[in-house]
Design goal:
By secondary structure, the protein is an alpha/beta fold. Helices cover 35% and strands 14% of the residues. The strands form two sheets. The protein has a three-stranded parallel β-sheet with strand order 5-1-6. A three-stranded antiparallel β-sheet has the order 2-3-4. β2 and β3 form a beta hairpin. The radius of gyration is 20 Å and the shape is elongated.
Length: 155
């Protein structure tokens, strides 16, 4: 599954080359020229991207991006590709990607229409749904929001 997701991400990254060429050097041209690919990642987004005991980025989306890096190295026929890591937050991830500080963002960023104006998204690799739950004996019915009135809740 991770390999398929990595190929999808790499294909999206490589697929932007033609349009970017018309406007000037593409992100892939920069990677080819410098031999460096910079991965942006959150530091506390378990299980997607977080720091291990040695303060190195790990997690599901970090592994996908590492596979993308291997694919990009092969596709660009680079003898060596240095992968650098740059921490991101919810507030910095899109601007850092848009301004070229990072080449890929490997977190759990929601793919929505407003963000498409700033960055490109690879195919979705994870879907989550928010639901409400309550103890059966708590006097709250998750299907009736009025039953929450006067109660303390946590989300």
């Amino acid at each position: 599954m991770k390999a398929l997701a990595a190929i999808s991400v790499a294909a999206a990254l490589l697929g932007t080359t033609a349009t970017a060429h018309a406007e000037g050097p593409s992100r892939l041209d920069k990677i080819r020229e410098t031999g460096v690919l910079t991965i942006g990642h959150p530091e506390t987004s378990v299980p997607f991207a977080y720091l291990d005991g040695n303060q190195k980025p790990i997690g599901y989306t970090v592994e996908i991006c590492q596979e993308v890096a291997k694919y990009v190295q092969e596709a660009l026929k680079l003898p060596k590709l240095e992968v650098r890591y740059n921490p991101t937050t919810s507030a910095t991830r899109i601007p850092l990607l848009a301004n070229g500080t990072i080449d890929l963002e490997c977190g759990n960023t929601t793919n929505n229409e407003a963000r498409h104006k700033l960055v490109s998204f690879a195919p979705t690799t994870f879907v989550a749904q928010v639901v409400l739950v309550a103890r059966k004996d708590g006097g709250v019915d998750p299907n009736d929001l009025s039953s929450f009135r006067g109660k303390t809740i946590a989300a």
